[in-house]
Every structure is written in C-alpha cells, then in structure tokens.
Amino acid sequence: MPTMEQATMEDLLKMLDPAKVPAHVAIIMDGNGRWAKARGLDRSEGHVEGVSTVRRITEIASEAGVKCLTLYAFSTENWHRPQAEVDALMHLIGIAIERETPDLIKNNVRLTMIGDFARMPQEARRRLEGCFNATAHCTGLVLNLALSYSGRWDIVAAARQIAARCADGSMAAGDIDEQTFARYLSTASLPCDCPDPDLLIRTGGDKRVSNFLLWQIAYAEIDVTDKYWPDFSKEDFLRALIRFQGRERRFGLTSEQLLSN
Length: 261
Ligand code: FPP
What we know:
Strand order of the largest sheet: 3-4-2-1-5-6
Helix content: 40-55%
Number of strands: 6
Distance between the termini: 32 Å
Oligomer: single chain
Bound molecules: farnesyl diphosphate
Shape: globular
Number of helices: 9
Structural class: alpha/beta
Strand content: 5-15%
Order of helices and strands: HEHHEHEHEHHEEHH
C-alpha cells in the first residue's frame, strides 16, 4: 500500500470509504497573494490561478460524493483591501461564474451563495443571479460561495430577524433555542438539507478560522495545509477527506460512549 504522499489519484479514490465521505466540506481558500508574490507576479494573478483551483476542487468534490462545498471567496473584511484588488476580485468572480455556468449545469452542480448579496456590485449580482437561476434544477453537488460573508455578520443578521419577531409578538424569547436560532442563519437557506460542515479545510498554513461560519463549525474537523490555494490539488483534497475518515468525532461524548451507541 503506498503512503498517502506517494498515492496516485486512483489509489486515493480506492482508499476513500464512500460511506464516510463528509456531506459538507467548507474551505478557507488562502494563499493566492503569497503564491503570486513568490513568483514575482501581481496578487491578482494569484486570484486568477485560484479560480482554476475552484474548478478542479469542485470537480473532485462532486466525484467523491460530497453533497455541499462551501468556499470562502470574499469575506466582509476583504472589502477593506485596496479598491483595485476588490474591483479585480469582484470582476473575476462574476466572469468566472458566467463562464463556468454551462459546465456546472452539465455536471449537475447547483450554485448558491451565503453572505450580504445586496453589498455585491451590480455586475457581479447579475452574473451570480444568472447562475443561481440556471442551476436551480441541478440535484448534484451544491457549490455554495461565501461572498461578503463573515460568521459574526451571519449571527447578527439572525439575531436581528429573531428580535423583530419577538417585537411583533410572533415569537417569544422562550421559544429561542439552538435549533430555532440556526433556522435564521444564512446556511438555513441551503438546499439538500445541508448539515453543518463536517470538515473545514484551510490552505496557506494559518491556523485560524478568520470569522468563517462561526456557529456552523462547532463540531467540524479542521484540516490545515501549508499549500497555497493555487497549488491545492485534487489529490490534496482527497487526502484531507481520507484524514477526516480517520478522525473520531465524539461530539462531546467519550470514546466508550460512542462504542456502546
Ligand atoms: C485569499 O488569498 C483568497 C481570497 C481573498 C479570494 C479567493 C477568491 C478566489 C480564489 C476566486 C474565487 C472564484 C470563484 C469563482 C468562487 P489571499 O489574497 O488572502 O492570499 P494571501 O494570504 O497569500 O495574501
């Protein structure tokens, strides 16, 4: 048996247990800028290369049987980057979405989004909406982009809706529990009864969650790789899934309790 590092794509697919593939994988795609800088290129070239990685990871996630892939494509904090980089990223995302729509349909992939849609530039909104509509009938992988998104934004938006319902009398404070609260988070709008992420992958080596899906990753397994996002391969993704399958998810219980269940 080859080691994980030596294993080919074919070996890795064989090592993967189809019954234990995480239903929802979330990814913090980091390192585009450093990838570009290491090559003496402009940061925007890193983002362009990052789009190719989005394409190949969508393909392999779909092939591996993942139900939902959430990608942190633009955070609330990213609005504070230099305006030229923000504009370039927004343009790139819109163009890529429009260009990839026929292939998404062909592969039965549905595009969805979480985040502050109203804050996105008009052109990007138009292109995104075109793709949401064109792929709404697709029943395979849900490719969910987190755009103008942050975990705190999500929680505050949910709290506002709940407060409004309490104020108009359609909800009482005592009705609020974890399940009720989660129904007001952006992820409640995802199709396919998407569960909270089982696995959170971060590229680029930093060991932090950067305001991503704060509520939803309560029990996610975390896998950090040093590779920059443009270098992240299909094999790297499969390795992360295989490492996930080796983890014991205890959800606060003991190993013994899990064994006796
Ligand atoms: C982080 O790298 C990456 C981003 C802020 C943007 C990621 C966006 C893409 C890969 C394009 C997404 C496209 C589609 C179609 C969804 P960084 O710039 O923070 O890198 P650094 O940490 O090395 O500076």
